[in-house]
From TrEMBL:
Belongs to the RecF family. Residues 3-333 form the RecF/RecN/SMC N-terminal domain. InterPro entries: DNA-binding_RecF, DNA-binding_RecF_CS, P-loop_NTPase, RecF/RecN/SMC_N, RecF_2. The gene is recF. It holds the Pfam family SMC_N. One of its GO terms (cellular component) is cytoplasm. HAMAP family: RecF. One of its GO terms (molecular function) is single-stranded DNA binding. ATP binds at G30, A31, N32, G33, A34, G35, K36, T37. Keywords: ATP-binding, Cytoplasm, DNA damage, DNA repair, DNA replication, DNA-binding, Nucleotide-binding, SOS response. It comes from the Bacteria. It is found in: Cytoplasm. This is DNA replication and repair protein RecF.
Length: 363
């Protein structure tokens, strides 16, 4: 798939940008703070419903603006064009698909974007929440029932946590009904995650092994969020008194995590920051390759500040791999990254929140 048009209004320093895109590589070049990362952020918003940058949603809104919107036209491999949009005025978000009001899930299912950016190492070194997001985004795109199960689980989790925080005596049967729902939805989510990881594993071995061959074979570990030998419903019942003391549910798929270890670096602490970045990049490329295998088209790939995040050899390897499979790539830098010099590319200059018409560079 590829974005053919990206229209942005009121996002950070981008007051208004209307960008036409084509096949292949698109480089957004400009000084720090010019707004080039916000272009990638807009594409990511359409795919994930959130930014890849840390911070509150309020900071997305341009200073002094009352609303923001992002619109994209996406051409799929079969020629179909999907028109997706997200808009916000005040605290209210609205999603649109092909001119009609839609759910966020419908918009996200239409647009797939993976992004490697300066914070991506958190996928390896950060909190478990970031790894669950990565995993569940992938599961969402290959398991049609995932979103329903996830919504059921979140609703039951919210209700059980509300009961846990009441502070008074609660009839056991009230807990039992929500725990049964949590157990059923949680076991389904766990099974879907396991299937996805089985599909992802060979892609991880190929992409990470190619980026970090010196670390040897990789091992993927997954912890489901409650003891392996017991059912979730049984665990929730047994944990009820402890959860009452804590005021929240401490076991379940919302506590799951996964990790990657290497033959020559069995602990995460053995990795340098550069190796963490390359491992995260391998995970993102593996997810993109699996998506392509399942859907018959590559997702859009964003590479933010490529030259400062990777050395020249790895920049060249990544660009070569992505151009070889025909993926649409959006990349940023203070100048045109060296591996792109000599390749065909669309180069956009970004200055003070304005995106100039592209210069076309041909190989």
């Amino acid at each position: 798939m590829r974005l053919e048009r990206l229209r942005i209004r009121g996002l950070r320093c981008l007051a208004e940008a209307d960008i036409e895109l084509g096949e292949g590589i698109h480089a957004f070049v400009g000084a720090n703070g010019a707004g080039k990362t916000s272009v990638l952020e807009a594409a990511f918003l359409l795919s994930h419903g959130r930014s890849f940058r840390a911070g509150a949603k309020d900071v997305l809104l341009q200073r002094g603006a009352s609303a923001l919107s992002v619109f994209g036209e996406i051409r799929h491999e079969d020629g179909r064009i999907g028109r997706v949009g997200l808009g916000r005025e005040g605290a209210r978000w609205e999603a649109r698909l092909d001119g009609r009001t839609a759910s966020l899930g419908e918009v996200v299912s239409e647009c797939a974007v993976v992004c490697f950016e300066p914070g991506s190492h958190a996928l390896i070194a950060g909190a478990a929440e970031e790894r669950r997001r990565y995993l569940d985004w992938g599961v969402f795109h290959v398991e049609h029932e995932f979103l329903l199960a996830w919504r059921r689980y979140q609703r039951a989790l919210k209700q059980r946590n509300s009961l846990l925080r009441t502070g008074g005596a609660v009839a056991p049967e009230l807990f039992q009904s929500w725990e049964a729902e949590l157990s059923q939805a949680g076991e389904r989510i766990h099974a879907m995650r396991l299937r996805y990881l089985d599909l992802l594993s060979p892609h991880l071995e190929r992409t990470i092994g190619g980026l970090l061959p010196e670390l040897g074979a990789i091992q993927l570990r997954y912890r489901r969020g409650w003891p392996e030998e017991r059912g979730l419903g049984e665990v929730l019942a047994d944990q009820r008194d402890r959860d009452l003391a804590r005021g929240h549910t401490t076991q379940g798929v919302h506590r799951a995590d996964w990790s990657i270890s290497f033959e020559q670096a069995p602990l995460r602490e053995h990795l340098s920051r550069g190796q963490e970045k390359l491992t995260a990049l391998g995970c993102l490329l593996a997810q993109a390759a699996l998506f392509a295998g399942q859907k018959g088209e590559w997702p859009i790939v964003c590479l933010d500040d490529l030259a400062s995040e990777l050395d020249l050899a790895h920049q060249t390897a990544v660009v070569g791999q992505l151009t070889g499979v025909g993926a649409q790539v959006l990349v940023t830098g203070t100048e045109l990254p060296a591996p792109l010099q000599g390749l065909s590319a669309h180069v956009f200059h970004v200055e003070q929140g304005k995106v100039a018409a592209p210069a076309i560079i041909t190989a």
